[in-house]
Amino acid sequence: MVCGNNDFFTELPGEFTIREGKHIIFLTHGHGYSVYNGTDRLIRRAKALGADTVMFGHTHCPLVEYREGIMLVNPGSISLPRQQSRKPTYIRMSVEEDGEINYRVYEVE
Ligand SMILES: [Mn+2]
């Protein structure tokens, strides 16, 4: 877990990277990277950290998109979805035996 913009009394880290399967994943809530204005800053930070995947939140809009060599992953929100459909979403991540990772967005009906 990482600290969000409303987590005022927490020891959670603001961001970190982990290795999973074949990938290096950069985790951040995203509010420090202007994610409402796009993912350019997230991508730049991921590249600087040597990561190939970014997991973030903050927008409450689900996203699984491969751009500029970086996999961008946002599960959206179960409680306060903000994408057009306003359907609660989450992501299931599966790490395959060969180390590849698949992400799939699920909508809660
Ligand atoms: Mn937020």
Brief synopsis:
This protein is mainly beta.
Question: Would you write up a description of this structure?
Answer:
The protein is mainly beta and about 110 residues long. It has a single domain, classed as Purple Acid Phosphatase, chain A, domain 2 (4-Layer Sandwich), CATH 3.60.21.10. Helices cover about 10% and strands about 40% of the residues. The strands form two sheets. The chain has a five-stranded mixed sheet, covered by helices on one side. It has a two-stranded antiparallel ribbon with strand order 6-7. The protein is globular and about 35 Å long. It starts with 14 loop residues before the first strand and ends with a strand. Manganese (II) ion (MN) binds next to loops.
Distance between the termini: 26 Å
Strand content: 35-45%
CATH superfamily: Metallo-dependent phosphatases
Q: Uncertain spans, ≥5 residues at pLDDT below 50?
A: none
User: What coarse outline follows from CA principal-axis ratios?
Assistant: globular
Rg over CA atoms: 14 Å
CATH 2nd-level architecture: 4-Layer Sandwich
* Fraction of residues in helix: under 10%
The overall average pLDDT, rounded, is: 97
Order of helices and strands: EEHEEEEE
This entry's quaternary arrangement is single chain
Class by alpha and beta content: mainly beta
Tell me the total number of β-strands.
Answer: 7
Strand order of the largest sheet: 1-2-3-5-4
Class in CATH? Alpha Beta
Bound molecules: manganese (II) ion
